[in-house]
């Protein structure tokens, strides 16, 4: 089952995000087989990362929560808020892919 994980950073925590980002990316890479899509939420001008959005496949909400509890940004205390929701992907994605 797909779950969205929507996380908003605490204000003025850009330095912490940059510091922990390599560990965060390595953790995501270990779960690449579960990933539907992922990326930072940004300011409207794309200059600042302000949060994270993940859509991943887990057998249950509890499994998603357990995985997220070990996520480096989460462990570092970066997020002001976190929400997890079951998600049904009913429309094939045609936009938003990074350039090849």
What does this structure look like?
The chain has helices at 14-30, 61-69, 72-76, and strands at 2-9, 35-42, 49-57, 79-87. The chain has a single domain (2-87), classed as Alpha-Beta Plaits (2-Layer Sandwich). The chain is built from three helices and four strands. The chain is of the alpha+beta class. The model has no long low-confidence stretch (mean pLDDT 93). A hairpin with a 6-residue loop joins strand 2 and strand 3.
Keywords:
100 residues, 3 helices, Alpha-Beta Plaits, single chain, alpha+beta, 4 strands, four-stranded antiparallel β-sheet
Q: Short summary of the structure?
A:
By secondary structure, the chain is α+β, with helices and mostly antiparallel strands. The chain has helices at 14-30, 61-69, 72-76, and strands at residues 2-9, 35-42, 49-57, 79-87.
User: How would the global form be characterised?
Assistant: globular
Strand content: 25-35%
Helix fraction by DSSP (H/I, runs of at least 4): 25-40%
- Provide the structure class: alpha+beta
Distance between the termini: 28 Å
CATH topology group:
Alpha-Beta Plaits
Order of helices and strands: EHEEHHE
User: How many domain units?
Assistant: 1
Number of helices: 3
Tell how many strands the DSSP assignment holds. Answer: 4
What is the residue-averaged pLDDT? 93
Major sheet size, sense and barrel closure: 4 strands, antiparallel
The order of strands across the largest sheet is 2-3-1-4
Q: What Rg is obtained from the alpha carbons, in whole angstroms?
A: 14 Å
- The CATH superfamily turns out to be Dimeric alpha+beta barrel
